[in-house]
Amino acid sequence: MDKDLKKQTKSKDRVRKHGEVFTAEREVKAMCDLVKDETERIDSRFLEPACGDGNFLAEILSRKLAVVRKKYGRSHPDYEKNAVLAASSIYGVDILQDNVLACRERMFSIWDREYTAVCRKDCSEQTREAVRFIFSRNIVCGNALTLMCVDEQGADTKEPIVFSEWAFITGCQMQRCDYTFAELLAEEDPKAAKQQNFLEPPAEEGHFLKRYVSHYKRVQEHDEDRN
Ligand SMILES: C[S@@+](CC[C@H](N)C(=O)[O-])C[C@H]1O[C@@H](n2cnc3c(N)ncnc32)[C@H](O)[C@@H]1O
């Protein structure tokens, strides 16, 4: 097998079953450059429905964090809050659990490397835990075609994929609203959702499953099952 292709694949079986071929760094950067302004906006939301171990998501996070450092690096409280916001805006789905776990870990280590370098002695373990929690909710093990969560074998479960929308409301208070993936798609394009029988378009905009508000360092206190 060609050397570069070998780096981009794990096994023939995974390529055959899941189309798993990782995108090379050069292409990732070039594609992100196509939407450069968005990748550099701290709160712009990105979702990759077949994220693998996070080649695109990692690049987007690095770009956003570079902007946070440039804008807020001199004030540790402002840096911390905006770095949490950057982390909370990035989402991924993959059908393979090992990819999802690797992706969450990779995202956290990029985030934590920057956080530690900027905030040094002002770093807080509680904030690190909050960011780990955000990645555990935002990077989901699921089937992006059926919009359902999957088990360790990649088979659909009865649980729909649910994403949390994070937003700062006042000061350090962060709001989390949970929506099913199906509902988010229906809001995006009600006609397409109806044609595909995902669900009826929502009766009113902003219909969510659950809403939580807490200090951004304590978002993990609203913890439920998430593998
Ligand atoms: C071509 S790879 C791309 C990975 C990554 N986006 C990249 O560019 O490096 C496709 C990924 O989609 C995942 N995948 C395949 N079918 C899927 C599905 N129905 N739902 C979610 N993920 C899926 C595979 O596990 C694999 O990681």
Report on this model:
This protein is an alpha/beta fold and 227 residues long. The chain has one domain. Helices cover 48% and strands 19% of the residues. The protein contains 10 helices and 8 strands. The strands form 2 sheets. It has a 5-stranded mixed β-sheet. A hairpin with a 5-residue loop joins β4 (148-150) and β5 (156-160). α6 (76-88) runs parallel beside α8 (125-138). The longest helix has 23 residues, at 97-119. The protein starts with a helix and ends in a 12-residue tail after the last strand. The structure holds S-adenosylmethionine.
Query: Into which percent range does the helicity of residues fall?
Result: 40-55%
Instruction: Give the biggest beta sheet.
Output: 5 strands, mixed
Instruction: Provide the β-strand percentage band.
Output: 15-25%
Let me know the number of strands: 8
Number of domains: 1
Structural class: alpha/beta
Q: Kindly state the mean pLDDT as a whole number?
A: 91
Distance between the terminal alpha carbons, to the nearest Å? Answer: 35 Å
Gyration radius (Cα, Å) is 18 Å
Figure out the total of helices. Answer: 10
The side-by-side strand order for the widest beta sheet comes to 1-2-3-4-5
The arrangement of helices and strands along the chain is HHHHEHHEHHEEEEEHHE
Shape: globular
